[in-house]
Amino acid sequence: MLGNNFGIIVSAGSGSRMSTPVKKQYLLLDGKPILYYALNRFQMNKNIEEIILVCPKDDIDYCKQEIIELYGLTKVTKVVEGGKTREQSVYCGLKVLEKTSCDIVVIHDGVRPFIRDVHIDEGIKNAWLYGASACGVRLKDTIKIINKNNFVKYTLNRDELISIQTPQCFKYEIIKEAFEKFKTYLDDFTDDTSVVAQYGKKTYIYQGNYENIKITTMDDLQLAKIFLESMEL
What is the dihedral of CA 103, 105, 39, 182, to 10 degrees? Predict the structure, then answer.
């Protein structure tokens, strides 16, 4: 695959919903931190040149010593301090790439340990074709809009609904300019494609995988253990 493709792994969250003394990205999954699995998937992907890890300031040394150096994640070239929100943290990673030869940036959540090579590769390919791409899965449940009294107002068309995942992939110039334009409003956005959409660029959605879960609760962690056991078998 042509071009220089850089990964940004966003892992600056506090993990408050997990309600554990250890931040969710460092909880152990089969003896290794959850963050390790996301980083290792990018480490092993032949189309990723380098990886930028964004984490809390107080965790930079831990990430370097106990994850990157310990597990030989040589593609991680920078570990930088994140912001207060996810999009602020992404912006911190994007600024690091200003002095690189990055063509495509592949942004991924550090607590999505089960991303597959094919989804990284598809994201890069579609970003080359369309400028912006992200993976997602069809919803299994019926979604209803309710009023303030909890009565159903109407039902959404499930065929038009997608649960967006990461990676979210972009031509670097597009996402850099989008984040620069809206850098004072980043708290208003919940994902990277929303920033690019506000900038006026459409995002191509390709098929993800239901195992590519974001671990935010203890239930998610238990499900992740089941997925990992299944993969090992």
Answer: 150
